[in-house]
């Protein structure tokens, strides 16, 4: 079950989850940081950069890596669409002509990041990401204060 399905089914209750990472078969490659299993490449005690990274920073790094990979593929394929017409001003902004193409490139691409393999399944989720349920609390009035 993916996270979106879990959220849909959990209206009216509080469910606490955390991401788990695949356990390497080789015990010497297992790496934990703050109760999170992370890539074994970050466990090198000789690398001060890797030792000081928080889990959220790992996700940010992987996201930038995924986007950079997509931009690189677009440039290599010579299917780049200029972003010269992009504007952050809402009333003047126009949809970027290459936006859908870039999204498809991102979805098709996959990279091996610091948190593991990043790729997109048919539903848009990463099939390599696993979560464990830490606890569930049911409220007396299900759905109270929840808006669609």
TrEMBL record:
A matching Pfam family: ANF_receptor
Protein's recorded name: Glutamate receptor ionotropic, delta-2-like
Cross-referenced InterPro entries: ANF_lig-bd_rcpt, Peripla_BP_I
GO cellular component: membrane
UniProt superkingdom: Eukaryota
Keyword Signal found: yes
Keywords: Membrane, Signal, Transmembrane, Transmembrane helix
Subcellular location: Membrane
Receptor ligand binding region domain residues: 24-137
